[in-house]
Design brief:
The structure is a homodimer.
Chain A (H helix, E strand, L loop, with lengths): L2 E4 L6 E4 L37 E4 L10 E7 L14 E3 L2 E5 L3 E6 L13 H19 L6 E8 L12 E7 L4 H17 L3 H12 L3 E4 L3 E4 L10 E5 L11 H21 L5 E6 L14 H4 L3 E6 L6 H6 L2 E3 L3 H8 L6
Helix pairs in contact in A: 1-4
């Protein structure tokens, strides 16, 4: 029999498959292909992008020339633009504003054919360093309430046009509803228990171990109890922190390690499925948002990795429910070395 | 410049593309193919499905034999089963229950190769009649709080395994969050204005006409102001009603007409994209749900049609935001005979 499970962080129900075994025949996806032809994100082609806003460069190299390991540029076809006012206004019954914010591309490496899971720990640490530099810079822009960093790997995860290893950053003038929902639930939980909901779940997962996928000194990766997607993973720092940009150099290296570890597992055991990866950080503290006063206690930053191997249908769109044929316990057994029950 | 638009029914923000023109080069989808080989939903193969729970049959035909125009059967691999108790319980911090409910397949026609938009009005009316019969029957099961009816057309909309024209029904033991969100917002709006939010938007769309796609005596189809998907459509009854199953015979025929009309437009003008269609009805009145007392006033049933021509990425999954490159005004001009501005 299937189970209906409620995600504790979002109050979202998920129907989890009755077959506890992994059934690769249910999955259908295109494998990642690195593409050919001219790529504006490759080293030597810097002139083909807008001028860089951040880069980690070799000593002596010049901005917008070769000699970098990570390079951040504005998207040349941005969904939100940095110029102008928000112009919040009504149109008849509706609310709208101008598409103001930022949309940046983070080239994760100068080489076209090396993907995130194939990089050195030092290189992945540099990507994390670039994320932090951009978040800290954008926090100074009071129009921005939230910075969302995400990665689409493979066509099935929406990466239709760019095959170079990249992440994307969007600076948003509103806090996304998905983030607000998590914040509100975490706030209510803290108000009731005076404990962080993420810390509680983390402790429980470390104790139960049946959904654990990877662990090191600073981080844990597990399959969430109510995973929406087969092989979904959540990466959480072990010590409580609301704010991604405050991680230490040692933590940064351990984050790079656990990310590479779990992405390599996906590559090796699920044959390189498309995935979406996203950073769930706290919103910027802005006085208009009521939650900013208790956010340090309430929220615990984390990373979500959502493999896209099973289709989303009218059921999911209409209900906000999900159906996931692979139980998180089966996913964890498959991905990790958790011994079978 | 792009616009950020807020959907009035859900409070969800959408970034709407700055290009007001339709750009088919941005779209990538597989066209529907009707498939070959043995199909359990074709006339004559009735023995290959579980026994029917409802059918519209020719006089003199027998249950589970040929001679039907619409036939409803339990899914042979159901995501929720009708047997057993919910068994709501805790597992450590988490909530779970058994996968109890119903999962049914509505074969829309006996013929494999005729799709919804190719059927006669009489045949589409019969499908609507089947929906109503199943909803009314399931309302008697007190474990069920909501019946969701949806259709996945084409591989890109998640129809991986069945190419026969079908809809699906899921009877759920909880009201889906997406429905609850709409209800709460509609309730707050009614509390403030003593008017239905859907009636207000409907009147405005009929007046402005710039997002109108189709209209008849009883129904209107328009591109929602904050459409998440290119060519998204909402079909709404003109007279206020919370409850789909109460439509009259005349309304039923006009619903069949407008559905066929808008699906034919998709087929002809967008070259037959995958789509998800879903019915958003009121939940069953159950005393545990606080909103049931005012639901008749607050809610207005409707149908959503979501073409799947543009990818969902990490941005959407992480934020709950959407990016839609085609403005609803451009979509309406493209799909309908609304004259260009």
């Amino acid at each position: 029999m299937t189970q209906m499970r409620k995600d504790i962080f979002t109050d979202r129900w998920v129907i989890v498959g009755e077959n506890d075994g992994v059934q690769p025949r249910d999955f259908r996806f295109e494998k990642f292909t690195s593409g050919t032809g001219f790529c504006p994100f490759c080293e030597g082609n810097e002139a083909a992008t807008p001028p860089e806003v951040f880069a980690i460069r070799n000593r002596g190299s010049s901005p917008n020339g070769p000699g970098w390991s990570v390079r951040v540029v504005p998207n040349s076809r941005p969904r939100l633009r940095i110029e102008g006012d928000l112009g919040r206004r009504a149109e008849a019954l509706h609310d709208l504003m101008n598409g103001v914010g930022a949309h940046e591309i983070i080239a994760e490496t100068a080489r076209h054919d090396r993907n995130l899971h194939e990089l050195e720990i030092r290189e992945i640490s540099d990507i994390i360093r670039a994320y932090i530099a951009r978040i800290v810079d954008l926090e100074g822009d009071t129009r921005v309430r939230y910075v969302l960093i995400f990665k689409n790997y493979g066509v099935g995860a929406g990466a239709l046009t760019i095959s170079h290893p990249i992440s994307q950053l969007m600076a948003l003038p509103v806090t996304p509803r998905a983030v607000k929902t998590k914040l509100m639930i975490a706030r209510d939980y803290f108000a009731l228990k005076e404990r962080c909901i993420y810390c509680d779940v983390l402790q429980q997962e470390l104790k139960a171990r049946k959904r654990l996928i990877a662990e090191n000194e600073d981080f844990v990766a597990f399959a969430p109890f109510a995973s929406r997607f087969p092989f979904e993973m959540c990466v959480l720092p072990k010590s409580h922190s609301s704010t991604f940009s405050r991680i230490s150099a040692a933590q940064m290296e351990n984050l790079a390690r656990i990310l590479r570890d779990v992405l390599q597992k996906l590559e090796q055991r699920i044959d390189g499925p498309p995935y979406n990866l996203s950073l769930h950080d706290r919103p910027f503290p802005r006085p208009r948002e009521g939650y900013w006063k208790t956010i340090e206690d309430d929220f615990h930053w984390h990373i979500e990795i959502l493999p896209q191997v099973f289709p989303i249908t009218g059921f999911e769109w209409a209900s906000g429910f999900f159906y996931n044929p692979v139980s998180p316990e089966a996913a964890a057994r498959y991905l990790s070395l958790v011994p079978s029950a």
